[in-house]
Write a sequence for this structure.
């Protein structure tokens, strides 16, 4: 910030120049003093320049171009999502921004490793360019693990050297290093992994985010010693306390697939002081859920319902997240400081009718500009320019499937073989060794980035049925328990994190039909040989070109059909499938080579 800009802020704070906006009759949520107090707030140039508390500052006054009478509503800081993947909402960044702002999220820390695993750094460049069109402040992290594991069959690979080159080409556009998922790479002090962590020093913050499910002891010591700041994968209070006590921030995740807040709330009920090192994250949030029940505002609501004080919940969603990422102080530009209703902070502000978060905010201001009212976006999204359109075109046509026959999905069950045990509402899975296939469903993962096509062209199938020669190399096959689809199959081009095609069904015929109909991206539901629901995702096989509302409508129709096929809550029909290939979360996963035990990092028998 220049001295001239600083002088302007000081003059406005002293009342020597007219403010842009003055909020009056507000009940200010003071996250520093942990209280609610009546007062007035002045904004100039997108920055809060003055806060006046009733009873203390009655003689002070500000003149303003515009006065907003809050009519006794609560005025609190804009909410910060500590960790998310925009692609997992199946909409592009500009559209995600419209949806998020309507629910009070004004800052999002985004890790775009989903699109990067498909399209590499071109995908990240698209996300950055598209996000510029919207008033949501999205801070992009550099994906740290593309692919998630060194031998994953993803669509791209990003090395430390690639990161350095991107930083040089896009100065100031990368906020930090995204979740470090390669636990063996960290604990084994792998040179490339260490080089990637070191590369974070060339980002805006120099920070590295974390991903460490069920890690403890010496491994956790090594992880924290590497300077990794936070973890959003905790599912138990004792696990979270282990990490918190080693200096890490804990993100209580409340998304569409993973619902960890209820389990972790006792950590804060036992000692509310711990909340200063805890914040919220959605990680993955479907538009249907976001539009219906919210995002970080939903996390606040649930925290309050589980006994956390409302001001403390708001503080976790604002100040704690700001402190985690260095937003609270120290940055030269006042428009970068945030997390509180206080002088010298960015004017990201919410007007709330009450502190229950039962409804969307009455008003949302981003850098002092009104962008949403009562759950409706009223801000501006700039049209896509030539650069955005060019980058979007690079993401299309990403699905390259080999020829497949019914034989690929017609494999027998072997008594005692390792089976994925699905845990509804949790990204973690179990492992089982049943003696029969009763109650089990088939699962297959088909590489879709071209390796299977090349192998097939080179004669992998020989004279056998199409695709059978790829099984165990580019097509993984197995069984799972707890995913109760009956009379059909579901397939998706989303399969974290390499995004190969994952298909689950109770019969080979419908599985083949489902995979054959994913086309250039999407979720497909097949019943008795017919496609009964689909969500098209042409951008990298991950994102729609429609609005959040359109995707939500498609999602709701998909859910209705899936529920009719026996998939009951709390199991999510889509999220319950697309995380099953993720090889960095315990316990059993599917990879193109077969069933993979994450705890031993070996293929299961």
């Amino acid at each position: 910030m220049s001295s001239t800009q600083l002088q302007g802020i000081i003059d406005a704070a002293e009342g020597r120049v007219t403010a842009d906006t003055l909020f009056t009759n507000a009940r200010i949520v003071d996250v520093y003093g942990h209280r609610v107090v009546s007062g007035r707030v002045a904004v100039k140039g997108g920055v809060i320049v003055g806060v006046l508390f009733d009873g203390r500052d009655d003689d002070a006054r500000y003149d303003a171009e515009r006065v907003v009478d809050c009519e006794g509503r609560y005025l609190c800081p804009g909410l910060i999502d500590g960790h998310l993947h925009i692609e997992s909402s199946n909409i592009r960044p500009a559209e995600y921004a419209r949806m998020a702002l309507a629910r009070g999220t004004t800052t999002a820390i985004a890790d775009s490793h989903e699109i990067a695993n498909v399209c590499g750094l071109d995908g990240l460049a698209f996300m950055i360019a598209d996000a510029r069109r919207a008033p949501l402040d999205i801070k992009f992290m550099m994906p740290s693990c593309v692919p998630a594991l060194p031998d994953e069959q993803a669509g791209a690979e990003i090395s430390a050297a690639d990161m350095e080159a991107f930083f040089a080409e896009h100065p100031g556009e990368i906020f930090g290093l995204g979740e470090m998922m390669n636990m063996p790479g960290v604990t084994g002090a792998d040179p490339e992994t260490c080089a990637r962590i070191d590369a974070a020093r060339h980002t805006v913050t120099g920070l590295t985010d974390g991903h460490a499910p069920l890690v403890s002891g010496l491994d956790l010591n090594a992880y924290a010693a590497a300077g990794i700041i936070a973890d959003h994968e905790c599912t138990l209070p004792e696990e979270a306390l282990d990490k918190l006590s080693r200096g890490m921030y804990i993100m209580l995740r409340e998304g569409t697939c993973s619902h960890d807040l209820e389990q972790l709330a006792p950590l804060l009920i036992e000692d509310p002081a711990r909340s200063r090192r805890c914040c919220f994250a959605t990680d993955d949030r479907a538009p249907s859920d976001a539009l219906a029940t919210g995002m970080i505002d939903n996390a606040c609501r649930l925290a309050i319902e589980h006994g956390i004080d409302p001001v403390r919940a708001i503080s976790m969603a604002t100040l704690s997240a700001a402190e985690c990422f260095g937003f609270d102080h120290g940055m030269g530009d006042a428009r970068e400081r945030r997390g509180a209703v206080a002088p010298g902070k960015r004017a990201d502000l919410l007007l709330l009718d009450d502190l229950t978060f039962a409804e969307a905010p009455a008003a949302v201001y981003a850098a002092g500009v009104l962008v949403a009212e009562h759950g409706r976006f009223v801000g501006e999204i700039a049209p896509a320019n030539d650069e955005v359109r060019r980058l979007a075109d690079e993401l299309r046509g990403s699905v390259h499937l080999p020829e497949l026959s019914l034989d690929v999905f017609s494999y027998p069950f072997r008594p005692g073989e390792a089976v994925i045990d699905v845990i509804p509402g949790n990204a973690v899975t179990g492992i089982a060794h049943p003696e029969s296939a009763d109650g089990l469903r088939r699962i297959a993962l088909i590489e879709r980035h071209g390796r299977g096509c090349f192998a097939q062209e080179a004669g992998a199938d020989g004279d056998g049925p199409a695709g059978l020669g790829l099984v165990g190399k580019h097509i993984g096959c197995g069984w799972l328990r707890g995913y109760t689809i009956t009379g059909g199959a579901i397939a998706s081009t989303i399969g974290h994190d390499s995004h190969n095609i994952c298909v689950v069904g109770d019969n080979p015929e419908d599985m083949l039909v489902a995979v054959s109909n994913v086309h250039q991206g999407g979720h497909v539901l097949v019943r008795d040989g017919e496609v009964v629901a689909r969500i098209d995702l042409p951008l990298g096989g991950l994102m729609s070109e429609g609005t959040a509302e359109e995707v939500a409508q498609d999602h709701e129709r998909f859910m209705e059909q899936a529920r009719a096929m026996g998939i009951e809550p709390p199991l999510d029909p889509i999220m319950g499938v697309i995380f099953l290939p993720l090889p960095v979360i315990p316990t059993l996963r599917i990879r193109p080579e077969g069933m993979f035990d994450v705890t031993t990092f070996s293929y299961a028998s």
